[in-house]
Design goal:
- The protein has five helices and three strands; from the N terminus they run αβααββαα.
- Helix 1 crosses helix 2 and helix 2 crosses helix 3.
- The protein has one domain.
- Strand 2 and strand 3 form a beta hairpin.
- The longest helix is centred in the last third of the chain and has 22 residues.
- By secondary structure, the chain is mainly alpha-helical.
- It has a three-stranded antiparallel sheet with strand order 1-3-2.
- Helices cover about 65% and strands about 10% of the residues.
Length: about 100
C-alpha cells in the first residue's frame, strides 16, 4: 500500500510539472494515474473500479469510464443516455463474468 501511495504521489508531481504542456488529464491512463485522478488507491481501482481497456500488453483506464464510475459512487443523477450506456456496460460485464466462469 505504501508503494501505491508513493507511486501516485510521484505521478501527480510529474503531472503538475508537465501541466503547462498537458492542460488536461490523458484520455487513457495506467492504473496508477487513474488512482491519482480519482484520489483512490490502486487496489480500490483494480478491485472495484471500471473495467480497463487493453491495448496490446498495456492496461489502461478511460477517463470517461472513471468519471461515470465516480458519478455513480456519489449518487449523482445520470442523463437518460448515460443510464442506457451504464445499463449496457453492467450487462456486458455480467455476461463476461458469467462466460469466464464456464
Amino acid at each position: 500500500m505504501q508503494s501505491d501511495q508513493i507511486s501516485c504521489a510521484l505521478l501527480m508531481a510529474r503531472h503538475r510539472a508537465r501541466s503547462v504542456l498537458l492542460p488536461d488529464w490523458p484520455r487513457l491512463m495506467p492504473i496508477e494515474l487513474a488512482a491519482a485522478y480519482l484520489s483512490r488507491s490502486v487496489s480500490t481501482i483494480r478491485d472495484r473500479g471500471p473495467k480497463p481497456k487493453r491495448d496490446g500488453r498495456s492496461i489502461l483506464y478511460d477517463r470517461n469510464d472513471l468519471d461515470r464510475w465516480a458519478d455513480r459512487l456519489g449518487g449523482q443523477p445520470l442523463t437518460p443516455t448515460q443510464r442506457e450506456e451504464e445499463a449496457r456496460e453492467v450487462e456486458r460485464r455480467f455476461l463476461e463474468r458469467r462466460r469466464d466462469r464456464r
